[in-house]
């Protein structure tokens, strides 16, 4: 492959209330994506557990740097020789009744090279459908980006989670990147209305690729998620997508495409505020 190109994959899952089952599914899909040629992969938000209550994730929280989930993810990254943006897992928070909703980035040696704690916490109420993440999640405060090198070429990624995509100022704070990574578990209701248009807007205004990994379908806890994991290019065009069900979508990041778009429409240079 051209050294200025990088193959990436977004894993899509219908996670259950069983941590072990979810880890097995993630490992199977990651292995398949690796065989298809992906070097960088992202798992969806809450990939490890879609519990029956909000408190379920608190019961499996881990201290940063140690724990079953982190060990398993480290091993998966190492075995498959990939960079893995590991969806989200619950890490310890100051309040013992809460967690940090955290995305860890593992390198091909299984080492954590970046950590992002979800900043914006989802709140929604429509009839009997209600979500209030602030009850069990302690928000983060720091934007996140990381760099990798592949075949002598540097690549920069931004990391955000689900509800973050409604806050464009966060992406401006992250700054220019080659690709924004989004792990999500968008509800079917909000996903149907806003998922695609929000993701395409974030790609267009930041003139970067955007790789989004989503939960999809009917979960054992009764929740229904939207799906439509995808790779969007810096012009806002969908390069690949998986609308429903478990699996992955594969795509290629191309430096020349980024440079072409930023040269013909240098909007990032035209910013005045």
Cα radius of gyration in angstroms: 17 Å
Query: In sequence order, what are the helices and strands, one letter per element?
Result: EHEHHEEEEEEEEHEHEEEEEEHH
Number of helices: 7
Mean pLDDT metric:
97
What is the topology?
Layout: E1 5-12, H1 19-35, E2 40-42, H2 56-59, H3 68-80, E3 83-85, E4 89-92, E5 99-106, E6 112-117, E7 123-126, E8 129-132, E9 145-150, E10 153-161, H4 168-174, E11 179-184, H5 188-206, E12 209-214, E13 216-218, E14 224-226, E15 229-232, E16 238-242, E17 247-254, H6 255-264, H7 267-270
Write up this protein.
The structure is a single chain. The chain has helices at residues 19-35, 56-59, 68-80, 168-174, 188-206, 255-264, 267-270, and strands spanning 5-12, 40-42, 83-85, 89-92, 99-106, 112-117, 123-126, 129-132, 145-150, 153-161, 179-184, 209-214, 216-218, 224-226, 229-232, 238-242, 247-254. It is an alpha+beta fold and 273 residues long. The strands form four sheets. Strands 1, 2, 3, 4, 5, 6 and 17 form a seven-stranded mixed sheet that branches. A six-stranded mixed sheet has the order 9-10-11-12-15-16, with helices on one face. A two-stranded antiparallel sheet has the order 7-8. Strand 4 and strand 5 (99-106) form a beta hairpin. Helix 1 packs parallel to helix 3 (68-80). The relative contact order is 0.17. The mean pLDDT is 97.
